Amino acid sequence: MNITKRKILHDGHYKLSELTVDADGKELKRERFEPGRAVAALVYDTARQRYLFVRQFRVGAESELLEVAAGMLDKEGEGPEDAIRREIDEELGYAVDHLEPIASFYPSPGATSEYIRLYYAEVSKKIGEGGGAADEDEGITVVSFTWEEMIRTSFEDAKTLMAVQWIQLRDTQKD
User: Fold this and answer.
1) Which of 55, 72, 128, 174 would bridge with 93, disulfide CB 3.0–4.6 Å?
2) Residue in 136, 148, 149, 156 annotated catalytic
């Protein structure tokens, strides 16, 4: 299979494209949601010994979700590590002491081109209010959990589930 044609159907906050695919001589048309590249991080405050999450309204879920800090890789010349450091500052109000890659993945490649780089971050110094960038109207609430509270919490967001499972596996392998 190969893509023979691309057409933008909508170019707003997000893009929606129609792709024409040649499937062994048969022409298929498929829509693809194109939100862009994203970064996310499971954040651990080493001073307070608590994991930090954000709660915010998500249009796709039509409700508030509890998630790891995340954002788009959308600033000119900014790499993934710089972007996640910026997002942690904006959303949680912390400077990053340590950053470690967990995984990079397509969360739903059948319908979207979104690609996420997921990290583990350690912080210890509060440098701002958090709650999101003022001009982005994110409505973020910071939520913190101990290890025990975190592993008993029910998460519905895929990147958050992946990050929490990663830390559980990492920490149980240490024992």
Assistant:
1) 128
2) 136
